[in-house]
Amino acid sequence: MKEDDPLKQDFMCGHKGNITCIAVSADGSMIATGCEGRASDVVVWDAASRAEKFRFCEHDHCVSCLAFSADSRLLLSIGNSRDRKAFVWDVRTGCIIASSQVPLAMNNDPNTAAACAWAPGTTGNGHYLAGSVGSPDVHLWSLDPYRGILTPERVLPGSVARKYTTARFSKDHQWLFAGSASGDVVVVNVARKNVQLSHPVCSLGVGAVIEVGSNLLVGGGDGSLTLLRPEETRSAEKPRTVLPGGVTSLTRSAEGRALIAGTDHGRIVR
């Protein structure tokens, strides 16, 4: 769909199975899609021409989540609990930079990633940092792009046990915000690799999280849009508005002056 003409739609066809995840690069030039099934490929599309740019065929069974890096150079793809593979792709060349297995949970059950995200920028040594959340664990991933090494590390949950649904880093990449199916946002201290705080926000689970200045706007499964100050210990504010249907996605408009929300009723609200 196009913002200036919401009735005009373009279709990109390239998957044989159901689409399970989608990501758009920060510069708006690329769209990545993943699917489930025997041919669970990741396809990177040129956003302007709608043409297929690259096809990655390394996953089996299902691609659970995708995320472009902030500089639009890298794509992280993570498979489901049967696949247990994670890849970082160079979307300029289509080559694999690094790969790793998704670790088992502490009880040796498979981890299922529901969402992943990259931290803005790189660390002091030029490494990239990413995070993935799901059921039951949160992982921080360190990428050494020079040696092609992708290393996962489990976040210590403390007494917090959640099924996670969304992931978002703070602008200074000191915090990872993980929305949960319980309706709260869990704050992870990246340096310490442990859970710091938990903020109850909504009912029916957190569907989407986006940064608004130094705050977070949280979209709930109950349709609520709530502003949260994540580093404070007090609870979130009352919902700013309630949409018809649970919020499944949040993004900014092209000019950055409006927010766009998708709902599980099939609506797009600006």
Automatic annotation (TrEMBL):
InterPro entries to which the protein is assigned, alphabetical: WD40/YVTN_repeat-like_dom_sf (IPR015943), WD40_rpt (IPR001680), WD_repeat_EMAP (IPR050630)
Keywords: Repeat, WD repeat
The keyword Repeat belongs to this UniProt entry's keyword annotation: yes
PANTHER family named in the record: F-BOX DOMAIN-CONTAINING PROTEIN, WD-40 REPEAT PROTEIN
Full protein name: Wd40 repeat protein
Species whose genome carries this gene: Tetraselmis sp. GSL018
Lineage: Eukaryota, Viridiplantae, Chlorophyta, core chlorophytes, Chlorodendrophyceae
